[in-house]
Design goal:
Layout: H1 5-10, H2 43-47, H3 59-67, H4 73-83, H5 89-101, E1 102-103, E2 106-108, E3 114-116, E4 124-125, E5 133-135, E6 142-144, H6 151-165, E7 168-170, E8 175-180, E9 183-191, E10 196-199, E11 205-208, E12 212-213, E13 220-221, E14 231-238, H7 241-246
C-alpha cells in the first residue's frame, strides 16, 4: 500500500479552489444601516453560497480495495491504519467510504446462502445485491462478487430486454419508432403520390405514376385510383434519447 495514500485522499484540491475573492471583496462596503439591522455580515451574503465545494479524491482508495482481493481483511486493515491516524475526523470519514467499497456485514443463512445485512430493510442474497467486493465471513478473505454487475450494465440489460419485446412504437399518425438491428429509428410517414390510368395507342389502359421508395421496406409505392390510399416512410433518422424516453424505451 502506498505510504502517501493519506495525502492523495485528504490533500486534494477542492473544486473551484483557484477562484479568488479579490474581485468581490471590496465590491461594496458593509453598512449596518438602521439600529435594528444586523451588526455582522455573513460570508455568503457577499460572495454567494454556491462557491467552493467540498472535494474528495477517493479513486486511490477504491483501487487499493480492488488490489486487496485475495488478502485477509485484518492484514489489509492493518496496512490502512498504518497510513492514517484513526483518531482524526478525516480518517473516520474515510472509513465510511471504505465500508461502501468493501462490504463486511455478511452472514450465512439457514439455507446456506450468503446474505448481506442492510441498515434498513431485510437482508438480501449476495447474488442479487449490488456489492462488488466483500469480506467472506467464513475465512475473513476479501473476495470479489462473481455475480456483480455495474449499474450501467444492469440498466443497459433492462433497456435491451424491454426493447426486445417491442419492435414498433407508434407516436402519432405520422411518426413511428422502429427497431432495426438493435437500434431505434424515427420514421415520418406521408401519403404516397397518386397515379392515373392512361390510355395507350392500342386502346389499353396503362397505370402511370411517379412512385417513391419506402425507406423502411425499400419498395416503390404509389396510390392507384379507386383503391385504398397508401402511406410510406418518407423520412428516417436515428431516434433521439428524449424521444425514446417519451416512448418508455429508456
Amino acid at each position: 500500500m502506498r505510504s502517501d495514500l493519506t495525502k492523495l485522499l485528504c490533500e486534494h484540491e477542492r473544486s473551484r479552489s483557484s477562484d479568488g475573492y479579490h474581485l468581490v471583496r471590496r465590491k461594496k462596503a458593509f453598512n449596518p444601516g438602521p439600529q435594528d439591522s444586523p451588526s455582522r455580515e455573513g460570508m455568503t451574503h457577499r460572495y454567494g453560497s454556491n462557491a467552493k465545494s467540498f472535494g474528495e479524491f477517493l479513486s486511490p482508495l477504491k483501487g487499493q480495495v480492488r488490489k486487496a482481493v485475495g488478502r485477509r481483511w485484518d492484514s489489509f486493515y492493518s496496512d490502512l491504519c498504518s497510513n492514517f491516524d484513526m483518531r482524526t475526523v478525516t480518517a473516520q470519514h474515510i472509513l465510511q467510504h471504505l465500508y461502501q467499497y468493501c462490504e463486511k456485514d455478511l452472514f450465512i443463512d439457514e439455507n446456506g446462502v450468503m446474505c448481506v445485512k442492510r441498515s434498513y430493510g431485510p437482508a438480501e442474497p449476495l447474488r442479487g445485491s449490488s456489492v462488488e467486493i466483500y469480506v467472506d465471513p467464513r475465512d475473513g478473505i476479501i473476495k470479489r462478487n462473481k455475480w456483480y454487475r455495474s449499474y450501467r450494465t444492469r440498466r443497459t440489460a433492462a433497456a435491451t430486454a424491454r426493447a426486445a419485446v417491442r419492435t414498433e412504437v407508434e407516436i402519432d399518425a405520422d411518426q413511428v419508432l422502429r427497431l432495426i438491428d438493435g437500434l431505434w429509428f424515427h420514421f415520418v410517414r406521408a401519403d404516397a403520390p397518386a397515379g392515373e390510368w392512361v390510355e395507350c395507342s392500342t386502346g389499353k389502359k396503362r397505370f402511370h405514376a411517379s412512385p417513391v421508395r419506402d425507406l423502411f421496406t425499400g419498395q416503390l409505392v404509389a396510390n392507384e385510383p379507386c383503391k385504398p390510399a397508401k402511406r410510406y416512410h418518407a423520412e428516417k433518422r436515428s431516434a433521439s434519447r428524449r424521444m425514446l424516453q417519451r416512448a418508455g424505451l429508456v
